[in-house]
Design a protein that fits this description.
Strand content: 25-35%
CATH class: Alpha Beta
CATH superfamily: Dynein light chain 2a, cytoplasmic
Number of strands: 5
Number of domains: 1
Largest sheet: 5 strands, antiparallel
Distance between the termini: 18 Å
Order of helices and strands: HEEHEEEH
Radius of gyration: 14 Å
Amino acid sequence: MAGVTPLKRALTDLSRVQGVQGVFVVSKEGFTIESVTASGAFDEEALAAMVTAAMGSVEAMGKELELGKPEIITVEYSGSLTLVSDIGEHVVVLVAERGAVLGRLRYELKKQLPRIRSAL
């Protein structure tokens, strides 16, 4: 994969997990830093803005209820699964088909987070 950055390579590896439709690295300011999608059918600008807002709400809830910092936020929609993980100044978002194996998605996401973090 000549000319491919380490970040793109890590996201590509994660995108190969069965059922994954897209993987995104989003800044906490609401901008997409890098992405890999199966179909390109995502409005990345909207996704980045909404994930950033949602992450702020989840963090506030954890702080208010003294639950600690969120590690992986999992949202199950009728047609898809979304996993969001805070990695400091950025957030990793994984969107998958509803039928994907949630445990496998969580495992693979956790496995790739150090690579993604070090590539930023």
